[in-house]
Amino acid sequence: MMRILGVTFLMLLLSACSKSVDQQADDYVEASYALCGAKVKAFSKSDDGKIRIICQNDSYFVVKNQGTLAYMQELNGAYCHGKGFAVFSERENYYTFTCADDKNFNIPK
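^ that's the sequence the OP posted. Answer follows.
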């Protein structure tokens, strides 16, 4: 009985790990096409949820969580016309960013 429970627990653990790997791969692809406007050079997600992205064109981003990453895609479409960001930073009350075409914005949260 204990062996069956152990195998079941191991299967659940492995399936949970594969979902996080799949999610990180999805985030990488989204960053590449929706935010960078170029290929991604480096992508990492820390244990505290911060996401760091360096694009091939040397654009860089540090965002606090997955929700901000999703909102960045909306901002990119609305303000940068889908061309991507040169720089993006999240502050306590504002999102400050420069589009790839050098337009600067400071948007309240």
